[in-house]
Write the structure tokens for this entry.
Amino acid sequence: MRTLTRTLAAALPILDWGRRYDRQTLVQDGVAAAIVTLMLIPQSLAYATLAGLPPEVGLYASIAPLLLYALFGTSRVLAVGPVAVVSLMTATAIGSLAATGTAHYAVLALTLAFLSGLILLAMGLLRLGFLANFLSHPVMSGFISASALLITAAQLKTLLGLPVPGRDFTDIVWGMAQQLPQLHGLTALLGGATLAFLLWARRGLRPLLLRAGLPHGLADALARAGPVAGIAATAWLAWQFDLQAQGLKLVGPVPQGLPPLTWPSWDLALWQALALPALLISVVGFVESVSVGQTLAAKRRQRIEPDRELVALGASNLGAAFSGGFPVTGGFARSVVNFDAGAQTPAAGAFTAVGIGLAALLLTPVLRFVPQATLAATIVVAVLALVDLSMFRRTWAYSKADFAALLATFVGTLGWGVEAGLGAGVLLSLAMFLRRTSRPHIAEVGRVPGTESFRNVLRHAVESDPALLSLRVDESLYFANARALEDRVNAEMAARPLLRHVVLQCSAINDIDTSALESLEAIDSRLREAGVLLHLSEVKGPVMDRLQGTGFLAQLRGQVFLTHFQAVQALAPGQPALGGAG
Amino acid sequence: MRTLTRTLAAALPILDWGRRYDRQTLVQDGVAAAIVTLMLIPQSLAYATLAGLPPEVGLYASIAPLLLYALFGTSRVLAVGPVAVVSLMTATAIGSLAATGTAHYAVLALTLAFLSGLILLAMGLLRLGFLANFLSHPVMSGFISASALLITAAQLKTLLGLPVPGRDFTDIVWGMAQQLPQLHGLTALLGGATLAFLLWARRGLRPLLLRAGLPHGLADALARAGPVAGIAATAWLAWQFDLQAQGLKLVGPVPQGLPPLTWPSWDLALWQALALPALLISVVGFVESVSVGQTLAAKRRQRIEPDRELVALGASNLGAAFSGGFPVTGGFARSVVNFDAGAQTPAAGAFTAVGIGLAALLLTPVLRFVPQATLAATIVVAVLALVDLSMFRRTWAYSKADFAALLATFVGTLGWGVEAGLGAGVLLSLAMFLRRTSRPHIAEVGRVPGTESFRNVLRHAVESDPALLSLRVDESLYFANARALEDRVNAEMAARPLLRHVVLQCSAINDIDTSALESLEAIDSRLREAGVLLHLSEVKGPVMDRLQGTGFLAQLRGQVFLTHFQAVQALAPGQPALGGAG
């Protein structure tokens, strides 16, 4: 019985923190939930429109996923829901398969969330979280900065009231430049004013409220509600002065009520078409979510478990798929707000879900008057914070190879879309990594006179012998660098007519894969045919264990020495055991 | 002037060996060329038909490419020309774009050779030879074994006279099983007899000739000529008894003369369609060629230069594209024969080209009588030698991860074709590698009592302090394992409430990439917020040099210690500089 409880507690973190839940925690979680709800309502609406979906879908995607994450998640403060980059990826993935606003488009979004949920769940259960490592920091950074610019460009046309078609960055920017004279004055005025207010509110609102004498907690909460104020004010203006009649585009009628029960498509051909985007959304969403979660958990000496986070995010996305939503993940800004506002347990997320549910029930009648330009301004302000241009400078200074991966991802994403950008970045960083490790540091070593230690002949005054070559490889041997060792030994062999023995000092070799084993066999047999013996020294225990059963050791005519000193003593001509002339 | 000569000699190896060319070398090269020519004539014809091309194309592909390789190649004995696996890849690449036997099909083959030549040349000039490392030994082995089985299955239907359509392995095998009752008796008899003779000739002919009193050299040469004898004998039978009238399929009319001047297609859409196959052909051909070249060069203490081999193979393929050929590379069997027959310089290759040229001029009238089943038998005998089933057993015993890559490539190639097979193998071996390195060995170390050395706390009885955690990472830090270090430090921090200092012992870290640098920054700031200081010890010189300019060192509140002992001495509470209670 106790084992069962433990197993359940391991699978469901709620059984752990839920047991110790008390009144004080409830208050802290409730306050945090209220603040996050205020922040999440405008973001949910805005990110749904960014994904090409009706605004209420954003609210739906912020209810069931939050409840499910509260059940399965290992982070105490991660706030799940629609986020900018994933919404953009959703729009890109399904934008070419259906027209925005159609029922089919909505079903595609549900299916994408469903597939993404399945992939995350499978990765979690199969412990494949390491696959997220394919996305290196420079690739993620380049991708997020480019996505933010793409989103900004697309929102600016809504904000200015310009009917520019297309999703391509250069198309949009060029189209806006051309159509600028036809901008819709009222839309641009309202959008620009909202944008200016929101930009100011990020920095200026909180100090103002504090100076007005409000207590810190309330000032914080109200400052977070800046976007809500912007939405309320512009919606009121639109309603009061009937601005729609003057050409201002509004959100329009929004259905009232809780999320509907929905089904993704079961069309296998469609699944195939959406598999790659779903995979990318899963991996990008997971990487974003995990890094936020880790940062916040560490601040309180807590920890999250990446493989179980995959399961929790998978469940959240499956929840989104069956409750009228679209792909979700853990958001950076809202999680930080949740943390700062004092959330103690995932219950805060559940309370947020309740808050959003109330909004879906009660607020929808007034949402119809929200100008589209206001939502666009909300998005622009949120995503501009994601552009990190300093990363370019820092990466350039630190590593040209990483800079190349960053630049390729950034340019690829802006120019050819999210899949091309991520693909280029991942491939380039793998290629750079292979290139770096494919030329491992291989030092010829010689004996430091009078000692038993061996050093690089290029850096130290050491003794060596023309008949004996000592090579130290400073890297594990695997498929990418096995041929480099072959090359090096071949070159040394061709250059040294007197050579009789080659000793590989293996002290830095942690692993030898099959390719490297075959390369060692090839090196041994080539050396032997040229009348040279191959020996090994200082092979680590685990490596030696694996070599034991192989044909390589069986065929090796040379010896395996415990220390390199022993090897040199045993093999040096006229130097049987004690020192002497070399 | 001398510099110019040296530069030229570096670019054109012929200027090096050509200067020392003498009469004895001429004789040795001439004899080797004669033997290789005898072997190459039937193979050229057979591999051309395997690629779906008229047989004379095989002769054309064995003239200009050999001359160009003799000019640029760094291997003294590599014999270039059509090879089985590349011919299969050619057939797969263009088989879906044009019908066999059409003029368009031939142009596609030229274009594939042209693109492959360009890719090889570019890889050589840009020093991208390391990209071939993506193909690990298990992947190459699985790919070649599967290709050999695919080729054998396709040739068996010709050998048995069964009109089975399709290129898919299971389709062919299943089709043959169904159609077996309809097999063409005469074709199967002749094909089977040729196959039996060739299989016997590989082993049995040479001893027989020796016993008959022939000198070693002549016996060798005649034994190599087994396939030629088989072709001559069956062609004579077909002509003498007019076997074509009885349903035996012959090669048919072959144009007489030297290779024509041809042009690849300049259609960019076509180039795009052929780009991936051309890349795969280039890389597979290069890997095959380089490993043969290295093995043979080492036997004489010579060496080849991979990046210049790329240029030479590129030139050879461009030559094939403009002289009526198809993609070529260095062949294993014929290079070994060339080596064994005593070839000393690439001139042997040029002499072989002359021999093949003479065959194209003089032999073509009799080639029309060669039965197709005879060529099929030649191919089957050649490729069966490529199947290496022992590799499966050895890899399974040595590394399950490498076995998975081998099996995926093998099954993928047989079931879904060469591109799917290679793709699956490469991706799986990269994923396995990332998985292995994404969990680097991170040991908590403690001080061996009374010494200055630190060992793994799990393996040794050492001293440690609850306020100080010493971690040693046994791997360079890069994007695939940076997060594992974050995880580990987070977990330790969550588990140790008394922790005040974390010291990373960096003695095994050869490199820190941008991702790992950011992870270190994240670790530092998380530790700091939890009231713990991060320190480093034993950072290698080059790593320290790169860290100097970064924000990480500027923000690090902890210290960088020269030795780990110094770190522990300085940080231990109540243990200011000299030993004492811990």
